[in-house]
TrEMBL record:
InterPro entries: Collagen_mod_GT25. It comes from Protopolystoma xenopodis. This is Uncharacterized protein. One of its GO terms (molecular function) is procollagen-lysine 5-dioxygenase activity. The lineage of its organism: Eukaryota, Metazoa, Spiralia, Lophotrochozoa, Platyhelminthes. GO terms for cellular component: endoplasmic reticulum.
């Protein structure tokens, strides 16, 4: 600001152009190197890099104003197919969970749950086990919720599914 003020005082006028993108800054402070694929954890702090790697290139068409409910492919009623994440994301999240390796037993007793009992037992890893629950909830709110509002009109609850089965 001091530079701009000094230029104005000397009658040097500037023209600023923000129509060209010359890059962006990243936030390296939160980058954790303890995971198999560390970039998966950057959705909140470095969203542009994360989206470029992991969000499907056609996703933006879905949330645009021209995309209607009838444009979604439905293999059966109330089931919608749409491009969401890249194959790279799918491969890396599966490999990350396999690398972590602490799948539940698939029995009703589950020490990870508050009451220790799972009504419908599955072999899964909860996102909080790998410190990814906050990131996953952010992804659901930012990317899934806008689509949910289009396909289930009138149902506006925030999505949640903090586990990977």
């Amino acid at each position: 600001m001091e530079f701009a003020e000094a230029a104005r005082k000397k009658n040097i006028f500037m023209f600023l152009d923000n129509r060209e993108e010359f890059g962006y800054l990243i936030f390296p402070d939160s980058y954790n190197t303890t995971h198999l694929y560390n970039d998966l954890w950057q959705v909140i702090d470095n969203p542009l890099d994360w989206e470029e790697q992991y969000i499907h290139p056609n996703y933006s068409k879905l949330v645009g104003t021209g995309f209607q409910l009838s444009d979604f492919e439905q293999p059966c009623p109330d089931v919608f197919w749409f491009p969401f994440v890249t194959e790279k994301f799918c491969r890396q999240i599966v490999e990350e969970m396999e690398y972590f390796g602490q799948w539940s037993s698939g029995k009703n007793e589950d020490a990870r749950l508050e009451g220790g009992y799972e009504n419908v037992p599955t072999r899964d890893i909860h996102m909080r086990q790998v410190d990814w629950e906050g990131h996953w909830m952010h992804i659901l709110r930012k990317y899934v919720h806008p689509i949910q509002k289009k396909v289930f009109q009138g149902y506006d609850d925030i999505v949640s599914a903090p586990f990977l089965t």
